[in-house]
Amino acid sequence: MESTLIEAPAPDGIPTRHEIEATLRRHAEPVQFVGWNLTEVSLKGLDLHGCAFFHCRGARADFSSCDLTEAQFMSCDFNNTHWRRTVLSAATFQDCKLTGVQIVDAHTLGLAFERCLLVSAQLHGLSFRRAELDGIDFQGADLTEVDFRDAVLTDCNLREANVTSARFEGADLRGADLGALRLLDASKFKGAIISKQQAAVLLSSLGLKVA
Q1: Measured distance CA(49)–CA(57) in Å, rounded
Q2: CA–CA separation, 53 vs 168, rounded Å?
Q3: pLDDT 10s digits, 114-132
Q4: What ranges make up the beta strands (E) of 95-167?
C-alpha cells in the first residue's frame, strides 16, 4: 500500500481543517502525512481511509467519526487525542505515543498496536482477541470489559490498569508485567496463562513459598 501513497508536504505551523481537506481533495489516492503538526486540530468526520501518518504529532487532536480504515501510524505522538466512533478497522499503530487517548465506541476489527505507549488510555470494551501484543504499555489504562481472549502479551505492562470485567481466557500473560499481583487481583485474570515467577509472587502474598 505504501507505494500508492502520495506524500503531502508538511505546512509551516499547524494547518487548519480547511487546509487538510484541500490536501485530501488534491489527491485521488490516500495521502502520506510526514511530520505534520496536528496539535488540537479537529479532523472530525474526515475520510482518511488508507492514509499514513509518519513522525506526526497532534496532542489533543480530535479524530472522532473519521474513516481510518487500513490507516498507518508510525512514530507519532498523539497524546490525549479523541477517537469516538472512529473507524479503525485494520489500522496499525507502531512506535507511537498514545498516552491518555480515548477510543470509545469505535470500529476496531483488525486494529493493531506495536511498541506503543497507551498509559492512562481509555479503551473501554476494545477487543484484542487473538492479537499478538508486543511492547505495549497499558499502565493505568482503563481496560474495563476489554477482550484479551487467546491474546499473547509480550513485554507488555498492565500495572495499575483497570481490568474490571476484562476477558482473559486463554491469554498468555507470561511476558506481561502484572505488578504486585495479589489474590484479589488474580481473579480478574481468570483463565489466563501465567509464569511460575508470576505464580510465586501471587503465592508470596499469601505467605507461601514455591519450592
Answers
A1: 19
A2: 32
A3: 999 999 999 999 999 999 9
A4: 112-114, 132-134, 152-157
pTM score, whole prediction: 0.89
Structure confidence by residue, pLDDT tens digits, 73-85 = 999 999 999 999 9
Q: Report the 10 Å Cβ neighbour count for 198.
A: 19
Q: CB-based burial of residue 129 (10 Å sphere; 0-12 exposed, 13-18 middle, 19+ buried)?
A: middle
**DSSP sequence for 163-180:** -TT-B-TT-EEEEEE--S
195 phi and psi angles, rounded to 5 deg: -85, 170
* Cα Rg, the chain, nearest whole Å: 19
**Sequence-distant (≥ 6) Cβ neighbours of residue 158 within 8 angstroms:** 138, 139, 143, 173, 176, 177, 178, 179
* pLDDT single digits (tens) 15-48: 999 999 999 998 878 999 999 999 999 999 999 9
Instruction: Name the one residue in this structure whose C-alpha cell is 500500500.
Output: 1
51: left (phi over 0), alpha (psi -120 to 50) or beta: beta
Rounded CA gap, 91 and 122, in Å?
A: 18
**Which residues 6+ apart lie within 8 Å of 189 measured at CB?**
163, 168, 171, 173, 178
